[in-house]
Amino acid sequence: MKVLLVEGYQEMSKVAAQLFAQEVRSKADLVLGLATGGTPVGMYAELIRMHQEEGLDFSQATSFNLDEYVGLSSEHPQSYRMYMQENFFGQVNIDPRKTHIPRGDVQDLGAECSRYEQSIVAAGGIDIQVLGIGNNGHIGFNEPGSAPDTRTRVVQLTMSTIEANARYFEAVDEVPTQAISMGIQTIMSAKKIVLLASGVAKAEAVRNMLEGEVTPAVPASLLRSHPDVTVVVDEQAASQL
Length: 241
Ligand code: GLP
Prior knowledge:
This protein is of the alpha/beta class. The chain is built from 7 helices and 10 strands.
């Protein structure tokens, strides 16, 4: 793992956007793996700026998001589809038909998971995947205990994740308890991975990921066996290293 230590959130966002932009420029039909949460908002903002001011072109790119809540329609304000629309897709020239996010509101969730996994393979696999990290070391919605061979599936969210994500909802009991998430193996199949961590709340998870045991108990630690991972971490998130 390559670790880039930066000062704070803004620098982390710029460094991450540069890494992404470099890939977009080198391969027009890039397959992007995208993440939600508070962490990548600044990176998306920087990529939008590069699109507007420097002509960074997403017209041939395809994207796959890590996860989506079960039970929320794509129009729900807290759905990850809506988040992506507001924070990125709506402001760059990516073809909406090439943006993929699991559907959390379908009858047959199992079929949706297989369909999603197959469409990643059909697109040629993910070239570059951005990840945040949960306070408990989760990646995507792969909670502690997720096996290394997992693929896209329905997962149960832990109380700690539900509480951490409650800030986006009116009340904690409105947060869905399940999600569809790419699995650990889906994420590990990406050619390149960039993990972003900012703020003191992530310090313990960052230490466990980088210095602890490689174990499914800390899903992010499993990334240490991937050949091309860059961790962009700010001073607060690195404070326990
Ligand atoms: C959610 C998402 C993850 C994200 C994590 C951290 O659970 N499914 O992909 O990395 O939260 O979120 P934040 O960046 O808001 O701290």
